Amino acid sequence: MTTPLSHTALHDLSVQELTQALQTKQVSAVEAAQHFLQRGQAHAALGAYVDTNTDATLAQARAADARIAAGTAGALEGLPIAHKDIFVTRDFATTAGSRMLKGYRSPFDATVVDKLAKVGAVTLGKLNCDEFAMGSSNENSAIAPMGSDSVQPVRNPWNTERIPGGSSGGSAAVVAARLAPAATGTDTGGSIRQPAAFCGVTGIKPTYGRASRYGMVAFASSLDQAGPMARSAEDCALLLSAMCGPDPDRDSTSLDVPTENFALKLNDSIEGLRIGVPKEFFGEGLSADVRASVDAALKQYEQLGAKLVPITLPRTELSIPVYYIIAPAEASSNLSRFDGVKFGHRAKDFADHDSKFPLLDQMYRRTRAEGFGDEVKRRIMIGTYVLSHGYYDAYYLQAQKIRRMIADDFQNAFKDCDVIAGPVAPTVAWKIGEKSDDPVANYLADIFTLSGSLAGLPGMSIPVGFAKADADKGMPIGMQLLGNYCQEARLLNAAHRFQQATDYHLAKPAGF
C-alpha cells in the first residue's frame, strides 16, 4: 500500500524526486501515469501530443509497479516519459509529423525507446514535431494534435501566441508545462537545444553516435542524434545514462564507447574550469536581452571558480550554408524511400492517360506531392540539386571540406578551454507565423547551434534568464554549453553546478 505524497503535486517533482517517490512507494506508477495523462488532456490546447494509448501506458505502469513490489525495479522504474514522434514505437503511431506516415504503426521500438523501457520508463505518448524534424519553429507539422480536428503548431507554454522552437517543440513544451517529467528529442542542427532555450528547460545532445539512431526516422544521417529534455541537468544525466550505449548490430554509426553513469560527477567542483567564450557568438544580430542573460550567467560561473577564456571560431558564419547543403542532400537520399509502394501514404487518383509519364512514375509523383509538406519538398529539391551531376563537386564536396575545417576550429579552441559557452539563439521565441513566409529567417535562428552539430560535438542548453524588453517580456532565455567529444559528463557537471546556484530551471509558466 502506498503512502500518498503531500504538499507537492506530482508534476512539480523532478525526475530524481519522482523516481525516488516511486521506488519508496509514496506513489504508484499507475497513479503517476494517470496523473500525467489527465494533465495532457487538460492542456490539450498546447497541441503537444499527437498520439496517446491509455491502455498501453497503464499496462506499462502496472508492470512497473509489479517490478517495484518484487524488488527488481530499474533505475527509472515507473517514470512517465513522452517521446518525440520521430522515434518508432509499437504501441503508438509514428508519423514524424508528416502526412506521408499518418497512422503508421511500427513493428518494433527504436533503440532509445527500448533502452528507456528496459530501465522502467512508462510511455505517455508521442509528441508533435516539425515534419521529418525539418524546422526551427514546430510550424511544419502536418499532423493534427490530440483533441483537435485541424493541423496546428505546438504552442509555447510561456506565451501561447509564440512558437516553442523546433523541431523538438512538442518535447520542450510538455516538459515546460509539466505535462511530462521528461521527454526525448532529436538534434540535427539544434533541435534539442533551441526549443529547450525557448521553453526554459534543459536539453542535451550527446556526441554523435553516443545514442543509437536505430528506429529514428532519418532526416540527415550524419547529423541526427537523440537526447533527453527535462527540467534540470541532473534529470538529463539520469535519462542520458539510460539512452546511450553501443548498438553495433543495428546502427553502424554507433560509437563503441561503454555505457556511462553521467550522474556520478555532477557535484564535482568546477574550480578552475576553463570556459571558452567565442567572439563570433556575440556579434551583430544578438538581442540585448539574450546577451545580458548570457553575460550574467558567465559572471555566475566566475563566482563558482571557473575562468573565462576568449576564443575564436572563425568559420561560424559558414555553418549555415554548409548545413543547408549537407542536411538537405542527406534528406533527399533518406526520403527517397517514401514512394507509396511499401508503407505510408499512397495517392489514390494518380492515373492520367494523357500524361507523358508511365503509370508507376505518376503514382510516385502524386504520392510524394501529396505526402510531403512545403519545407520537406524545399529541402529535397535543394538536396537533389547539390547532389546532381555537375554540382556535386561545386557544392556538396566543398561543404564537406568546410565541415572538416569547422570541426578543426573547435579542436583548436579546446586547446585553450574545457567547455565553450554562448547563446543558443540570437533571440527569444518569436510569434507563431512571424517567419513563416521567410525560410531563411528561420534558418538564421540556428546560427549558434549548427557548428557544434556539424562537428558532432555534445551540446546542451540551460535556462539562464528571462527577457525584459516589453515586446518579449518574460520569455525564457537559454545558454549553450559545448564540450569535446564524449565529454557529456563534464557538460552536465558544469550545468548542474550552475543550477545549484540559480533557480531559473525551477520557474514554470503561469497556469501550469
UniProtKB/TrEMBL annotation:
Protein biosynthesis among keywords: yes
An example Gene Ontology molecular-function term: asparaginyl-tRNA synthase (glutamine-hydrolyzing) activity
Superkingdom of the organism of origin: Bacteria
UniProt-listed Enzyme Commission number(s): 6.3.5.7
Residue intervals of the Amidase domain: 33-492
This protein's record includes keyword Nucleotide-binding: yes
Catalysed reactions, semicolon-separated: L-glutamyl-tRNA(Gln) + L-glutamine + ATP + H2O = L-glutaminyl-tRNA(Gln) + L-glutamate + ADP + phosphate + H(+)
Active site (catalytic residues): 84, 167, 191
InterPro entries, A to Z: Amidase (IPR000120), Amidase_CS (IPR020556), Amidase_dom (IPR023631), AS_sf (IPR036928), GatA (IPR004412)
Keywords: ATP-binding, Ligase, Nucleotide-binding, Protein biosynthesis
PROSITE patterns listed in its UniProt record: AMIDASES
Classification via HAMAP family: GatA
Subunit structure and binding partners: Heterotrimer of A, B and C subunits.
Protein task: Allows the formation of correctly charged Gln-tRNA(Gln) through the transamidation of misacylated Glu-tRNA(Gln) in organisms which lack glutaminyl-tRNA synthetase. The reaction takes place in the presence of glutamine and ATP through an activated gamma-phospho-Glu-tRNA(Gln).
Family to which the UniProt record says this protein belongs: Belongs to the amidase family. GatA subfamily.
Protein name, UniProt field: Glutamyl-tRNA(Gln) amidotransferase subunit A
Species of the source: Rhodoferax saidenbachensis
Higher taxonomy: Bacteria, Pseudomonadati, Pseudomonadota, Betaproteobacteria, Burkholderiales
Annotated gene: gatA
